[in-house]
Write a structure and sequence with these properties.
Layout: E1 8-10, E2 15-19, E3 22-25, H1 26-48, H2 53-79, H3 81-86, H4 101-119, H5 123-147, E4 162-164, H6 180-201, H7 210-226, H8 244-263
Parallel strand pairs: 1-4
Antiparallel strand pairs: 2-3
Helix pairs in contact: 1-2, 1-5, 2-4, 5-6, 5-7, 6-7, 7-8
Length: about 270
């Protein structure tokens, strides 16, 4: 009986092309495209609800700054504080990699608090719409991680396991791994489609905080579960019952459950 090899040998280059010393990478392109697609989805929301489009341009600027700064500081301070506090100039070297979704979440929340205050829009109104496009961004960013052959899972015998042949540690390429980037990305895509559909079912008028709460519960609940399949991102996570990603997810899930409960109350 012939045995058919079903594992996937994953070996794409993370680079798309070079222009002199400039390198265009899949991760950067997908990260940037999340803002591109997000802008046009938010544009439909603003037009449907009669909000000035000029405010969307301002919101996009706030979101870009909040996402990049928050994600970078989140990685540096949550995962490798000793190194980056000793080499603070390295925090600015975003092109070297190192972004954390929990930090991005905090950065987005802070930027929208400032935006809402300056533009006389409530925080929950903005968040209930922004999280729809943020869920889509999660799919694009995890696809970028897949192209980088990073943030993969434990060894698996399942037929869809990936040999990540370009893993930064050559030993990690010797066994098939859970493609956790795909698991997480597909989960985010389902959350995006569900919230987008629900927006139109609700005629653009959800209970304040409903979509934000569903997003937090779904995204960070999913993240908490998938972390059980992932390899530790940093050394200090070895031996921890819950890793840093899971510990940081718990407050977001709790907040999400509270917001959903609050939005569904009869007096909400």
């Amino acid at each position: 009986m012939t045995t058919i090899l079903t594992f996937i040998h994953w070996n794409p280059s993370p680079d798309i092309f070079h222009i002199g010393s400039l390198v265009i990478r899949w991760y950067g392109l997908l990260f940037a495209s999340s803002f591109f697609f997000g802008y046009f989805i938010m544009l439909q929301f603003f037009k449907k609800e009669g909000i000035e489009v000029d405010k969307l341009d301002t919101l996009t600027t706030y979101m870009v700054i909040g996402t990049v700064v928050g994600a970078r500081l989140g990685h540096c301070l949550f995962y490798e504080p000793g190194y980056y506090l000793s080499h603070p100039i390295k925090i600015l070297e975003v092109w070297e990699g190192g972004l954390a979704s929990h930090g991005a979440g905090l950065g987005i929340i802070l930027s929208i608090l400032i935006f809402g205050h300056r533009n006389k829009l409530t925080f929950l109104w903005v968040m209930d719409r922004v999280v729809i496009v943020v869920a889509l961004s999660g799919l694009l960013i995890r696809t970028g991680n897949l192209m980088n052959s990073e943030i993969f899972g434990h060894i698996t015998s399942l037929p869809w396991g990936f040999y990540f042949l370009r893993a930064s540690n050559p030993a990690d390429a010797l066994d098939p791994r859970h493609p956790t980037q795909i698991y997480e990305g597909l989960g985010y895509f389902i959350i995006f489609l569900s919230l987008w559909r629900l927006y139109y079912i609700k005629q653009g008028k959800p209970g304040p905080g409903l979509f934000f709460g569903l997003f937090l519960t779904g995204v960070f609940g999913l993240r908490f579960l998938i972390e059980f399949l992932k390899e530790p991102q940093v050394g200090f996570e070895q031996g921890m019952p819950l890793n840093m990603g899971q510990l940081l997810s718990i407050p977001f899930v709790v907040l999400g459950i509270y917001l959903v409960y609050r939005a569904r109350r009869p007096d909400a």
